[in-house]
Hints:
Strand order of the largest sheet: 1-2
Distance between the termini: 16 Å
Largest sheet: 2 strands, parallel
Order of helices and strands: EHHHEEHHEH
Amino acid sequence: MLLLLAATETAAVPGISAAGASPEARRATAAADAELLLGGPGSVRPHALPPLPAGVSPALISHVVLRQLGWLERLLVADLGCAVAPAVPHLRPPALEASGPAQCLSTGQALAPRRVEALLRRGRIWGSGSIRPHRCCWPNRCPAAPARPWRCCGGWGCRPTAWWAAACARPPTNARPNW
């Protein structure tokens, strides 16, 4: 299961969203959602979600559902262009695909055509199932040392982030991707 994170400068338009009390607060919404989804309500989360006037965060509902289904441990997070990186293990594709938030929709050019094409190619690769991550790429299960986490995830065309490396428990002795 893959959680894709992204952002747009459209979120900076005052009053456009209830996802944050201010345009600045909305810059961290994707990171805050990922942290709540993976860690749950009792976890320490550097990026706080804004208080909701009514209801519950969809990230919290998703956390409960995924935990009950036993899928939470299989969730992979990929940052495709967030203003603020989540404080959870995540993958980040090459710069062309994850080069920060999209521009405001009002510009008429939210994403450069080359970036759209690169994202479509990446989506087709990931969606085809022809490349599968080694199970050690799953959060909190990666045995790779900080010096070698890409040995597991390189087939996805991504390099694990520092958060990913920090989640690794011990160096592999014979880690090999299984795609």
